[in-house]
Amino acid sequence: MSKISIVVPVYYNEDTLMDLYRDMQQKILGSIGAYELVFVDDGSGDRSWAVMNEIREMDENVRLVKLSRNFGEHAALLAGLSVCTGDCAVTKQADLQEDSTLILEMYERWKKGYKVVLAVRRSRDENAVKIFFANLYYAMVRRFVNKNMPVGGCDCYLLDRQVIEVLERLDEKNSSLTLQVLWAGFRTDKVYFDRRDREKGKSRWTFAKKLKLVLDSMMSFSYVPIRFMTYIGVVFDLFAVILMISVLTEYFTKGVPIMGWASLMCVILLSSGLILSMLGILGEYLWRTLDASRARPPFLIDEEKRPRRAENTAEQSIDTKEAGEQPCHRTHGEDGKQY
């Protein structure tokens, strides 16, 4: 019988965790068969860890992982995938914006032989500005990084055990776990859902984290930034050559003196700005190379609590083993030998 692990990254979600568990309990846990819930606390500063322990006392199939600090959602997901024991694993957000029944549909697709099942947003019940920039990001990813990125984007996906092992071997930092899944290229299917607006809690998905995701996506999976530098350099070289020919032609044919301190300064300042921008792009690559060469792990687990079912099974196994080890009593026969 197959087993599914549900991996939930947690970061300041004390308001939604219990509601999330009850929602899954009512909608899917009773009909999904063998399962394991893996909650990963990504350095939350609220009562998230305490609520997670309360859920563990209510359900013997809950595994808890606490990271030593905040490493980011993708690192938390990777930590949950590294400790889960299911034949497949599905990621789920803790903000109650996806319907839990989506997991049942994804699980059925996996049973049909798909190694990856993406949960694609059909619509988003969010403000127009957020939708615009989200669509812009996914359009950039499809154009410059991976054409297989769904139009609506995806944050939740189901992965076969084989895919999980591949992600663990990659062991990348400053990257996008979603793009790693798409890069792996296993047989993939999609299910569609309508994303609800957040009703409880406050989103910690800040502008700085969004900007880092854009940079990680572009620099880890695309050569566009480097090619952009080359193209800009070629364009400016052509512009400089054409301008030089024009100035010299006017000087020798019409006697126009070479003047223009203001225009010269504009060109110098523009060129200097572009040079510094190019150095910044190179610096990004150098820093990422340095970070990878240090071989620091993408996450550190401070504490892990196994499911109570597994602990009870282990205790029963130890008791059975001890009961089976009967003491050996030596006896003496009439001939004086020990038996």
CATH architecture of the largest domain: Alpha-Beta Complex
Annotated CATH homologous superfamily of the largest domain:
Spore Coat Polysaccharide Biosynthesis Protein SpsA, Chain A
Overall geometry? elongated
- The CATH topology annotation of the largest domain reads as Spore Coat Polysaccharide Biosynthesis Protein SpsA, Chain A
* CATH first level of the largest domain: Alpha Beta
Count all strands and give the number.
8
Discrete helix count:
11
> Whole-Å distance between the termini?
48 Å
What is the N-to-C order of secondary-structure elements (H for helix, E for strand)?
Answer: EHEHEHEHEHEHHEHHHEH
> In terms of structural class, how would the helical and strand content be classed?
alpha/beta
- Share of residues in strands: 15-25%
3D structure, described in words:
With 339 residues, the protein is of the alpha/beta class. It folds into 2 domains: 228 residues, Spore Coat Polysaccharide Biosynthesis Protein SpsA, Chain A; 70 residues. It has 11 helices and 8 strands. Strands 7-5-6-4-1-2-3-8 form an 8-stranded mixed beta sheet, with helices on both faces. Helix 5 packs parallel to helix 8. The C terminus is likely disordered.
